[in-house]
């Protein structure tokens, strides 16, 4: 175990190796069963409400794209294999949903019978949903560990896989809710309930929904797997606390608390969203920043041992460990030497990150494919008159673009809140 609690990255996944892992076949069977069950649900939806179903699938699939990009970019320095990201997403989309939909309904019925129908009506979604769904989603991260343990090298990996499981669950559940609301409206194959569901559950609530909850639980599983220097009781306790935090955040989000306390209208709805969603969002952002910085220190430290400015300069060492500084370096290259230089700096950064991973495996960093790629991009940058991928000063164009984007985002948010009428 390194001082930063980051293990050297493993080599890529080999299909032949996976076939020899029993857990791989168990996970594959569960994915197949879950896909079959959700295909039956989709078939009923398409038969009853074809236009609404297709619209819901398209809208929420489009919403998944920026979430996927952001989550997959969280671990820039030691990127997760696409195959495992797909498995994590699929687990949330078909396994966790196919288990949670009937199990949550059954648990709500049990609450109504053991306590009261009134309690089930008010608190059923807050008590039953998180209890079933967070366990089902967390098992998706456990599945990734069982089939590809060597790929979980840091707590940040647990965050990424947990977020991907949550994203798959979030997209499919929202589609189910959208078409369910069409059925509840009783007006046939209409699109208005789909649009309203997309605005509320996708656009307004998506930032602090299942992707966020499962990322927190995934961090706990990552900690459990990695911190072998701690006692088993300590690691299990931390993992249980993380899953409990995901459950508590989910329960707060589903609870009827504040449903009538802030009045009606767009501002009241925004206030409820912030009060319920902002605390777990801030927590996971802090966690991601903390574990990302520790991982960045480890991998950038590997590159620092080269002391070769042809492969990475002192300025680039300061840039590589920060997403904001990497983006600033690309913008600076584009402003100084054009689009080709911006692309070259991005490719340089990716090659340097991959070289850091290879160094963590004990390989020679001065030779090989990664070093050759860095030199090619460096030669191109020199040819373009921009030899060093460092971040420049903040430009007025970037500041203006940031302000404009913020104004547009606020305007779109206000329109969405107004369209829902504060309901």
Topology, element by element:
Elements: H1 15-19, H2 22-48, H3 50-73, H4 82-114, H5 117-147, H6 155-185, H7 192-204, H8 210-226, H9 232-254, H10 266-304, H11 314-320, H12 323-337, H13 339-360, H14 369-383, H15 396-420
Helix pairs in contact: 2-3, 2-4, 3-6, 3-7, 4-5, 4-6, 5-6, 5-8, 5-9, 6-7, 6-8, 7-15, 8-9, 8-10, 9-10, 10-13, 10-15, 12-13, 13-14
Largest sheet: none
The tally of structural domains comes to: 2
Q: Give the number of helices.
A: 15
Count of distinct strands: 0
- Portion of residues in beta strands equals under 5%
What is the approximate shape? globular
- Spatial extent as radius of gyration: 24 Å
- Summed over residues and divided by their number, the pLDDT gives a mean of 86
Please provide a brief summary of the model.
With 423 residues, the chain is mostly helical. 77% of the residues lie in helices and 0% in strands.
């Amino acid at each position: 175990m390194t001082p930063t609690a980051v293990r050297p990255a493993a080599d890529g996944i080999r299909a032949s190796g996976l076939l020899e892992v029993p857990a791989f076949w168990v996970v594959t069977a569960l994915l197949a069963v879950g896909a079959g069950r959700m295909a039956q649900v989709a078939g009923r939806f398409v038969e009853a409400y074809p236009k609404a179903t297709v619209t819901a699938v398209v809208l929420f699939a489009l919403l998944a794209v920026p979430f996927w990009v952001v989550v997959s970019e969280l671990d820039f320095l030691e990127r997760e294999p696409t195959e495992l990201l797909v498995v994590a997403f699929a687990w949330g989309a078909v396994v966790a949903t196919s288990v949670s939909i009937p199990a949550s309904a059954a648990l709500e019925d049990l609450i109504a019978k053991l306590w009261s129908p009134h309690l089930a009506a008010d608190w059923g979604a807050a008590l039953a949903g998180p209890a079933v769904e967070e366990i089902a989603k967390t098992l998706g991260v456990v599945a990734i560990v069982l089939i590809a343990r060597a790929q979980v090298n840091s707590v940040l990996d647990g965050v990424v896989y947990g977020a991907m499981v949550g994203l798959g669950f979030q997209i499919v559940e929202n589609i189910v809710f959208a078409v369910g609301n069409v059925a509840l409206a009783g007006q046939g194959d209409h699109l208005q309930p789909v649009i309203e569901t997309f605005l509320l559950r996708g656009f307004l609530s998506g930032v602090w929904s299942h992707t966020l909850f499962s990322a927190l639980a995934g961090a706990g599983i990552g900690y459990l797997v990695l911190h072998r220097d701690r006692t088993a009781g300590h690691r299990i306790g931390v993992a249980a606390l993380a899953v409990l935090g995901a459950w508590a955040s989910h329960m707060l989000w589903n609870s009827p608390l504040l449903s009538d306390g802030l009045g009606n209208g767009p501002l009241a709805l925004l206030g409820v969203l912030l009060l319920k969603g902002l605390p777990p969002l801030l927590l996971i952002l802090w966690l991601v920043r903390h574990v990302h910085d520790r991982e960045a220190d480890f991998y950038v430290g590997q590159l620092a041992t080269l002391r070769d400015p042809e492969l990475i300069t002192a300025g680039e060492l300061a840039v590589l460990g920060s997403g904001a500084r990497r983006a600033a370096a690309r913008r600076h290259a584009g402003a100084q030497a054009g689009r080709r230089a911006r692309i070259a700096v991005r490719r340089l950064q990716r090659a340097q990150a991959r070289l850091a991973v290879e160094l963590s495996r004990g390989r020679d960093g001065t030779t090989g494919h990664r070093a050759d790629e860095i030199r090619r991009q460096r030669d191109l940058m020199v040819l373009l008159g921009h030899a060093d991928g460092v971040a420049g000063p903040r430009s007025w164009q970037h500041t203006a673009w940031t302000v404009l984007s913020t104004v547009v985002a606020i305007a779109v948010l206000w329109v969405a809140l107004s369209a829902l009428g504060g309901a």
